[in-house]
Amino acid sequence: MAKVIESISEWNEIYNREIKGKKSLGFVPTMGALHKGHISLIKRSVKENDITVCSIFVNPTQFNDKNDLKNYPITLDADSILLENEGCDYIFLPTKEMIYPDNYRYIVTETTFSKTLCGAHREGHFDGVLTVVLKLLNIVRCNNAYFGEKDWQQYNLIKDMAKALFLDCNIIPCLLIREPDGLAYSSRNTLLTPENRLKAPQLYRVISSNKPLDVMKEDLRNLGFRVDYLEEVEGRILVAAYLGNVRLIDNVQR
Ligand code: AMP
User: Is the CB of 158 inside a 6 Å radius of any atom of ligand 1?
Assistant: First the structure.
């Protein structure tokens, strides 16, 4: 039975009594509305560790758009069943007050890579991500933390933060998981209109086409996407584009 943890002190008790020095601990931080992408991280953690914790916390500090935060899907009952079925041991459900007792006075800022790509037009987004991940890693005290390559820039920033701040935890990348039609699984996919949901897999098709970047951008615009960015970094094509007001991201190895 996956146990729900609703306070940090409750987790500290369990950690000190049952885990510390005895068992390996895997951790999967999420914002909930779980899908097969998240589940692949859970499966990997369950396989590689004695105990797995999944946190569900819609982190307000990483949303620069208040409507995006307001509309973010919440499906806690379904999430609990999925986690239970995968053999996840603990579901950590912190509140905003628990995570930010300092009212977000202390912030982790990366000065370079975080200002590009997903950070270029979303001010403070990665400050919010890095700060919440550092706090969660400090609370949970896992051996291994799992992050999806769907958010390739985020994974790299977290990996570099762990190194820069000497965190005692492995940051483990996990493959991007796609729906059968090629669309990368995302909690935001459920917000697409039926018409845009049909169009959405074209994002993957276009960035896999091996055409010059400008041509890919043009192809996406012609299909009705509003392109936020499309760039090549370290041999990888990275894209963010809107369909209606839903922002989709994806990436492929060139
Ligand atoms: P989120 O709930 O969007 O914050 O995502 C939680 C974790 O799941 C992050 O490490 C994401 O990169 C990962 N994730 C989300 N979607 C996918 C996917 N389609 N494939 C693999 N990992 C994913």
Answer: no
**Whole-model pTM?**
0.98
| Domain count within the chain | 2
**Shared-domain flag, residues 111 and 141:** yes
> Average pLDDT over the chain, rounded to whole?
98
Question: Hey, what are 23's tokens?
Answer: 């068992």
Grade residue 166 by pLDDT with cuts at 50, 70 and 90. very high
- Is 125 strand, coil or helix? helix
- Does the beta carbon of 118 sit less than 6 angstroms from any atom of ligand 1? no
| Whole-angstrom distance, CA of residue 158 vs CA of residue 11 | 23
Residue 125 beta carbon below 6 angstroms from any ligand 1 atom:
no
> CB 20: neighbour CB atoms within 10 A?
12
Return d(Cα 151, Cα 156) in angstroms, integer: 9
Question: Are 22 and 130 part of one and the same domain?
Answer: yes
Task: Give the residue numbers annotated as catalytic, written as ranges.
Answer: 38
Domain harbouring 19, CATH code: 3.40.50.620
Domain span at 140: 3-174
- pLDDT for 71 beyond 90: yes
What is the arithmetic mean of pLDDT over 143-168? Answer: 98
Among 41, 43, 137, 152, which residue has the most ligand 1 atoms within 8 Å of its CB, making it the best to mutate?
41
